[in-house]
Design goal:
672 residues; DNA Primase, Chain A; DNA primase DNAg catalytic core, N-terminal domain
Amino acid sequence: MAGLIRREDIATVRERARIEEVVGTYVTLKAAGVGSMKGLCPFHDERTPSFHVRPQLGLWHCFGCDEGGDVISFVQKIDHLPFTEAVEHLAAKAGVQLRYEDGGNGRPREEPGRRQRLIEAHRVAEEFYAAQLDSPGAATGRQFLAERGFDRAAAATFGVGYAPQGWDHLVRHLRGRGFTEAELTLSGLVSQGNRGIYDRFRGRLLWPIRDITGETVGFGARKLFDDDPGPKYLNTPETPIYKKSQVLYGLDLAKRTIAKERRVVVVEGYTDVMAAHLAGVGTAVATCGTAFGTDHVRIVRRLLGDSADAAAGVMFSSGATRGGEVIFTFDGDAAGQKAALRAFEEDQRFASQTFVAVGPDGLDPCDLRLQRGDAAVRELVSSRQPLFAFAIRSVLAQLDLATAEGRVAALRSGAPVVAGIRDRALRAEYARELAGWLGMDEPTVRRAVQAAERSVGRSGGPDAPDRGERAQGNGYPARRPEGRGAGPSYGRDSDSGRPGAYREDPVAKLERQVLEVVLQLPQHALGAGFDTLAPDTFTVPAYRGVHDAIRAAGGTTAYGQQVERLAAQAASADAARHAAAWWAEQVRENAVGPVAGVITELAVAPLPEDRAEALAGYAQGVLVALIRMGLTREIADVKGRLQRADPNDPGYAQIFTDLMTLENRRRALSRD
């Protein structure tokens, strides 16, 4: 068994795996001041972004859930990987050859991390299936694609392949590439029979299902032959790398367009995704054999970058929201309406405006493109209607509104749907809409809606919080004020050693600002006197622990020396950035217990000054202020000693000299 990964290789992975790129595949990051980015936290529900990334230091921290760390810890947490597998995953992406402590040049090929082996098996399988699409046996599959308007270029874009008929074509291919039976069984690419393993997919068209990073984690397979006893669509079963509730087909291709356009279009199948993209709707995605659920909501919200204003339903005069749009396309049949109503239940979790688009004559995007062209698909999306309105009118459509009995029944059926809208302003507006659709007076409808709220035990009365105002006790994080100069709310656990109790104290604030400068802008702290500060300069215990870690790492002098070393190397053109990341990691490694978490917070926290040209002045200002405060404390101590000393004592003169030295140093700082 290979040993531990060498420390220097881990450091290389941290350096080459750009944290903003890794995090950016899961979270839409936006600029948040000089050298800082922020977005919605992928680890807890929130409406206001509190997840910050400091690319220069390679660190991230969420001021909402108090999680933080480096690029390796992010991959560990987001992909649920142990440390070694997270490093191996990043190394593979960054092209770093890992070495292990047993002296070898790397793990033997049969012993890499489990996740990477499964990813590699799927990569090889995808290549195999794609090549088989050109084989004589795939004629039916090629015909299927052609009849739906997809040429070979389209198939290649989406990685469409063909699983040949027979029992073990893929099994033999993967075994020839060194994969073991245990790995193949775990991958979900094979099935287990009385005589051993055999290909799970046979005689079918294959669509590779990729995660948000673009790695293939599973397949969706469409039946082609009548003698195939299996279902019309067959997907990869749940595996360590494939969770159907956590993937969206096409997301790897759509993610950047979704983030740019602030819109996602949810269609129902693989061919619908292909048709939408080819028609110019590059934001289309689809679920993989399951309903659109809570985990899908979280993925979409992170890409849309929903804001608190959008959560509250704030509208511009044009009718657009500050948040993104989620558009569901459904067939016009009963099954499609049922799917839309399920989406209505999930919509309450969105901080976006949610819509439904139903094709003319019930055509799905694939058939619509085939029959009426690309423009018709784009028109389908643009003709969307609000999901709330669709849900209510779907209920009303089942009843005869021409009779009094039908209208009363429609009121009883429609009122609970309106009552289910958590946004109070929208609830009131749809109560009025319902009154118009039923031809009833508004007070009667409002009373029916209020009665429906009470009957289902809702707490959504007039005093209930809007969607953007959820209290922490209801499963939503309490909103924290943000803006320029807003400091992080440290240490919600008083037992953690974190400085939350000192948050408002001006001395603690200054101490925090100095440590933020030293960790984030060490180049501006060099030669400013920080390294000469006494250990007791910091009064907050956690900040004193950070100061101890900085001193143990060699102080800012060590950072300056690292810059010089890297600058002397021809390959290190960006010496300052690499030195800053190295510096932050050195300080974190020298931290004791919970102090490491405080260091990460301080290293990532937004600074009160966000103008690049003013950072040096800001850094100098807070450093000088803390040094002057420390000198003032020393002067007070020396004056006390002087008052207690006997003027005739031989040591009196030395105490007086010390006092004058300190006074001169303080005056010099004031002049500077």
